[in-house]
Design goal:
Blueprint: H1 2-8, H2 16-41, H3 48-64, H4 77-97, H5 100-104, H6 114-126, H7 128-146, H8 151-219, H9 222-245, E1 266-268, H10 269-273, E2 281-284, E3 291-293, H11 294-315, E4 321-327, E5 331-338, H12 347-353, H13 358-369, E6 373-378, E7 384-391, H14 396-412
Parallel strand pairs: 2-4
Antiparallel strand pairs: 1-3, 4-5, 5-7, 6-7
Helix pairs in contact: 2-3, 2-6, 3-4, 4-6, 4-7, 6-7, 6-8, 7-8, 8-9, 11-13
């Protein structure tokens, strides 16, 4: 796992590597202190040769494992467990090697502060929880060495646990910050690549499609139909580029995307209505994301689609349609207006009596289920306008929209 992370972070500063260098340096310095401290106290030990043998094993182990404790890629839990076991063994052996009177008087153990280096290793590798557990084990070993609980034991345990927890918590924050930075750099690189592709497409494909549309209209006949199709593709491609370059309204840590998105998760209404644009359908929306709960956004988009079906069916294929999206503080309003022949106000009631429920169910019914409304205005010779209003829910959806607007405003200023 560590090797993979190092490869992924190649070329990016790692906040963990300096911490592992600090662990290595602290292990060596505390070992030198432990050996020097024992050398000064060896005279009163009951079994100095055995104590020197332990100090030799501890020294060999510490120097032999410098490479393993130099990076996360090499330092696994088993190395830390072995280091902790050796330190705890030294603490417990102190009572056997030293004079009982010295132990009862509070003489330091053989590993002394070298035990803190072990706790530091647990902090850097696993965070504050493993560090607290390692500190507790060292503290219990000290109590066992003294044979009873003393104020000095409690003091040392509290200090060791506080140090391990504090360092472990800082390490967890640093690791999370590093992941956030790496994700931000990935997003920045992807955005730059999309912008480059957008420029290339604009300079090439879109200009060719626009030229085909103009020439097709000029030539007429079959060429006009080809030009119309080219115009539709140009609009769709422009909408796709705009959607890809739109700022992300909310940032989350990387996670696995489900094949079926959460229906309650906020969706950008612009992304749902953008594909409806064509040579005779114009979609106008705000520059910032228009977020609604997933179900509300889908139902509102379906109602707009039903309104467009009515335009094609009753206004004719040559009718022009305009879709306007308005993101108000308390509601999202979508207006669908066409330049067709229109109809009399009584026509909707007559159609419903005849069993044709397209407007009452596909449009008004959907909006009614969302707690919104659908107003249809038409007059003979003046086209038709359908105004769909969905109230904005207080809470998650509105908060997400406000956050998105603030983020977009900040990125553009």
């Amino acid at each position: 796992m560590g090797t993979k992370e190092n490869r992924a972070g190649a070329g990016v500063f790692s906040v963990e590597q300096p911490l592992w260098r600090a662990v290595t340096a602290f292990r060596l310095l505390t070992l030198l202190y432990a050996v020097g401290r024992y050398a000064g106290d060896a005279a009163h030990y009951a079994h100095p040769a055995a104590a020197w043998a332990y100090m030799g094993v501890l020294s060999l182990w510490t120097f032999a494992t410098v490479r393993q404790f130099a990076s996360k890629a090499r330092c696994t839990w088993w190395w830390l467990y072995a280091d902790l076991a050796l330190v705890v063994a030294g603490i417990l052996l102190t009572r056997s090697f030293d004079q009982i009177a010295q132990v009862d008087a509070g003489e330091v153990t053989l590993p002394t502060v070298r035990a803190a280096a072990t706790v530091l290793g647990f902090s850097v590798l696993g965070g504050w929880r493993p560090a607290a557990l390692a500190a507790l084990i060292v503290g219990l070993a000290n109590i066992g060495e003294r044979g009873r609980v003393t104020s000095s034991n409690v003091h040392n345990i509290v200090l060791l646990m506080l140090a391990g927890i504090a360092i472990g918590y800082v390490v967890e924050l640093a690791r999370a910050s590093e992941q956030t930075l790496a994700r931000a750099l990935e997003i920045q690189a992807a955005t730059r690549e999309r912008e480059r592709l957008a420029r290339d497409i604009h300079d090439g494909v879109l200009q060719v499609l626009a030229m085909v549309q103009r020439r097709g209209t000029e030539l007429g006949g079959e060429a006009e139909e080809i030009g119309r199709m080219a115009g539709e593709q140009e609009i769709a491609l422009r909408a796709l580029i705009a959607e890809g370059l739109a700022p992300n309204p909310s940032y989350e840590a990387p996670r696995r995307q489900s094949d079926h998105p959460d229906p309650g998760a906020p969706q950008d209404l612009r992304a749902l209505l953008g594909p409806l644009a064509g040579s005779r359908v114009t979609v106008a929306a705000p520059g910032t994301p228009v977020l609604l709960p997933g179900r509300a956004a889908s139902e509102l988009s379906a109602a707009v689609g039903a309104a467009l079906d009515n335009v094609r069916k009753h206004a004719g294929p040559g009718a022009q349609t305009w879709i306007l999206v308005e993101d108000e503080p308390d509601a999202v309003v979508v207006s669908v207006r066409d330049d067709g022949p229109g109809f009399a106000a009584s026509r909707l009631g007559e159609a419903e009596q005849e069993g044709r429920l397209g407007v009452s169910q596909s449009i008004r019914g959907r909006l009614r289920d969302l707690g919104g409304s659908a107003e249809i205005t038409s007059a003979a010779g003046q086209g038709t306008e359908v105004e769909l209003r969905v109230p904005r829910q207080r809470g998650k959806a509105s908060g997400a929209s406000a956050t998105a607007a603030a983020a977009t405003k900040e990125s553009t200023t």
